[in-house]
Amino acid sequence: MSGNVAEWTSSWFAPYPDSRIEPHPYMGSWVKVIRGGSAVDLETLALRPAARNFVGAGPDAPPYPENLFQFVGFRLASYRQPGRDHVAPVVRRATSGHLKPGALDRERFAAFVQRDWHPADAEVPNHVYVRGRATAVVFVPVTHILRPTGGPRMMAAWKNASALRKASGLRKKARDESPFFVLGALHLDLPLEGVDVPTGVAVKKTRGSAKAPATEPGRCAPGTYLVTLWFDRIALTTATREFVCFLPALASKIPSVEVRPRSSESLGSPTLRPSLERDEGGLDFTVLLGGRRSKDKYVVRVRAALPYAKDAFLGALARDGWLKSTDGR
Question: Is residue 125 included in any domain, yes or no?
């Protein structure tokens, strides 16, 4: 906190509230607060975390990233809950299309972050809390599947939710020319393999009936996607509902989607289980069905497999020095 470099903060330099100090002309919009001292400070008064100064030289040299200042560094912080710092960017990217930001439940999320992360009260032998580029998988569920906002079909489903209080009714309704029911947002820093991607061949539609797109086995690149229910399968789409891929079907005895009455317990947080041995993850979450006059009596449980590309997790771990075999490899 002191003695190496002073730490540049995000706060504009200004008097404290109720201060009687006359404001400097640079205060408020031209210089940023720095805390602590640096190795060149000879006064012990500056070598303490409470020392407060500013960096920048007013309009001639404002504190922009391209302007360098000697003996000034950065203060870095991390949330105690791994993955929370990813949630806001994921929501922002996922809601850049038709989905409203309020439709995603930011407080209920699941995340797997591969990095050298330590709880605040854990002993850290080398004082390094984060090492290397993080590899993250983050999922943020919707608050309700049915909402009183959206297109005409969503409005109609919200007004007549009784027809969707069984899984068969929900799956039957999830057939359209574009993915219909959004289940959440998924961010991947790793590619997926063994998914069904569109072939590019148009599918002929019979009158009054939509058809699932033609697909073939392929690969899904890292990115931020919407998780949707479409044609009785779990699909990934872009923020503008453009189809990307279908996730693999689960075992026949494990339903991907279940609708059931809500019990007294809370919804709980989604579960994201990566398997380093098989390069496969499992996603399990529960959201409210919603709908007019439903009073949140029904929930929808969704389970999906995330087939990460071969050796994706192991390769990322080994690249950052996490793995080493007994023979030194």
Answer: no
